[in-house]
Write the structure tokens for this entry.
Amino acid sequence: MASASDLGSTDDYEALMSMTDVELLKSAWRQEKAAPEILQFESRLIKRVREQIQLMEETVEEFTESGFDPLTVSLYQMDLDRTQFLLRSYLRIRLQKIEKYMFHIFATAELLTRLSKEEKWFIERCCVDLQTHLEKSVLSQLPYTYQSIFQQSVINDETDMVAKPQLDTFVVCKTKYYLGHIQLEDNADGEPDGSSPYDSGSQKPLEEPFEMEPNVLYFVRYKAVKKFVEEGKIDLY
Amino acid sequence: MAGQSDPNVSIFSGEEVEFMAEDEMVEIVPNMRMEPLNMLCGDFGPFYPQMATQVPMWLAIALKKRGKCTIRPPEWMSVENLTQILEAERESQAAFQVLPFHYVEISSLLFDYASGDIPDLYMVRSLINDIRDARFLKVESSLESFEDARSSAVKVKNLSAMEVNVVRPFVGRALQSFYKHGSPDLVPNPEAMSARRPQATDNIQRLDSGR
């Protein structure tokens, strides 16, 4: 057995190893569904699941042809359907997010690296096509200052026509370990309207650091736990 | 940007929550013999008549539908336990009792497909309904205390999957508004609001309709 010092990580490793790929996919699906922004594509996991699905499809086909017990075959088919549902749903949520935030993702290198090869190809085509379409149909008819698809007008520097995921959203999450002293790094990603209109009168109370007990559900602002979600320390529900 | 909260993303449908609950393990007693099943989601069986074994809920229901097994209701679904929980649930205004994360879905699946396997069915069913109602009432009343949450985390101990899912849209947006408007006891200056706010919202609306 492992020594006390690295017991924690060995436990993690064993817990991870005892999970089937389908369970991992389910968790990835849940995370992707609950997170406001696009997460890292689980390329290795998806590859494994695809292979397993294909293998199972062949097995089920063999069973059907050889007149195997129909009950067993139908159970295998159900198992297959459930896994395929997860996979499809996972890919679809990602496509939904990509379509919604395409210009934002396309312009942000960090987000772009989270996409799979196919998704990158898709977003590229999407951006180009939409831009060409809008330019041809509307924008080219407008005065010069209003021709950008990113800005309402060139006077304004902000890319205020680009839809961005709202990282302020509250998400429901749970942690496996105790996480103490969680605090937002101030304006790490540049709040669009950081200066609130109420600033003049009194100041917004400074966000207090908070802690998270293991296995307790919390409503938390996504931004505050973003990095833990990325590290896999927090599960979204 | 208010307009961007799309109801389709970051929300689970009732069916999806049930889908997740269907992976919870449950004990069945088969009445037939079947080879072990080596499935994508795990290995189950072998199955022998009268030998109890653990399978996921969906598999149990599939077998039950074909009359191949009986399902043993989980221990927490006993009348004694549920009576206790209901009492405790009614006694304390703040705390939620410990119940399985998917208790709503599991019990409703069992009522739908395996009602014959549940002892004291009517009692159990009405107890669970009462517990559910009591808890939802408590969730609603505890929402009032959310507003003094200064930090960006609100603990919802022992809330179950379905309960979370039901309150998520409302609580999420409410908390976000609290956050946006700073401390709740702060009375916003209406003039400053009308001077700057409309422009911002106007932009957002135009952005939405443009999408």
